[in-house]
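Need residues for this backbone.
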């Protein structure tokens, strides 16, 4: 297997913890958590693993500016801005929405890291404006590198292929997990775990709970992305849609729309385990996992690993109201 270029700034390995009080409260499978909210960079999160490979690739290409896009409270953009400033690079973020009078949460951090923000009123225009921003910076000599949404390129997906290797090295002290459950959207984490499962022999099941995308699209996209990522390692695997497990049952409300599902999940993790989730990604994914436990999808004897992908700064965004039990 080839060894791709990689920087080392994530705090790894992230710990695995058992959640006994939440497991007892739900009365089903035993729940564990992989703490990728503790990867270290700018409050951590799953994008940090991807950026170790993406920034290395950008440096190899001589890039001086990282350009990416997302929602106004994008966790990916926050970590991209932090990585850029850490390695002496400029950062331009194309965000959909309108600039608030007072930035909060992730957006406040973007600004603290010195990112230039380009606002897009209509999300449907974001791809076009992102490309135009890249072309303009290139013409001005900015030497840009375009970081895909969510860091979800074949290069970025490698972060989670090797995260699976990390998990397998931790497994002897944790026992075998029957399921890995996590939030999926742009597909990079999902593709990396799918590739890592094959590379490093994980025998359990991997279930992505969609945050905003159609299940069929996810299966097609993730299988293709995992196949392309394997090429970078010289493996050449060809994944099929049947190799990818995903459900879009819990995303009908739409991206970033807070419902009782997310509110309850955030509250339960906090009340029983002192563990913070975010309202958009981990809140929705954990809410789906909780529902699957209650409805008997997981067996009582199953060990379920919830992969915490971070995002907790979003708890402090003005647009979300979690409330209390």
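Answer:
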């Amino acid at each position: 297997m080839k060894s791709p270029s990689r920087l080392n700034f994530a705090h790894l390995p992230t710990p695995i913890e058992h959640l006994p009080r939440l497991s007892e409260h739900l009365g089903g499978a035993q729940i564990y958590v992989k703490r990728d909210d503790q990867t270290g960079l700018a409050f951590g999160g799953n994008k940090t693993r991807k950026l170790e490979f993406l920034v290395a690739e950008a440096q190899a290409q001589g890039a001086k500016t990282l350009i990416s896009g997302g929602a106004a409270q994008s966790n990916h953009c926050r970590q991209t801005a932090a990585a850029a400033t850490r390695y002496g690079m400029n950062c331009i973020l194309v965000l959909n929405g309108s600039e608030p009078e007072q930035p909060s949460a992730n957006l406040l951090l973007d600004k603290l890291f010195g990112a230039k923000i380009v606002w897009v009123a209509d999300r449907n225009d974001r791809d076009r404006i992102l490309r135009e921003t890249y072309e303009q910076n290139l013409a001005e000599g900015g030497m840009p590198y375009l970081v895909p949404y969510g860091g979800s390129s074949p290069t970025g997906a490698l972060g989670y292929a090797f995260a699976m290797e990390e998990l397998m090295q931790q497994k002897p002290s944790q026992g075998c997990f029957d399921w890995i459950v996590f939030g999926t959207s742009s597909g990079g984490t999902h593709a990396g775990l799918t590739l890592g499962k094959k590379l490093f022999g994980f025998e359990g099941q991997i279930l992505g709970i969609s945050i905003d995308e159609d299940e069929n699209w996810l299966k097609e996209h993730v299988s293709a992305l995992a196949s392309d990522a394997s090429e970078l390692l010289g493996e050449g695997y060809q994944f099929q849609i049947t190799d990818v497990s995903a459900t879009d049952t819990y995303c009908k409300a739409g991206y970033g729309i807070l419902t009782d599902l997310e509110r309850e999940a955030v509250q339960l993790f906090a009340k029983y385990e002192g563990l913070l989730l975010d309202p958009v990604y981990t809140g929705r994914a954990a809410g789906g996992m909780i529902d699957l436990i209650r409805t008997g999808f997981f067996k009582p004897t199953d060990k379920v690993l919830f992969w915490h992908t971070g995002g907790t700064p979003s708890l402090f965004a003005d647009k979300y109201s979690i409330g209390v039990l």
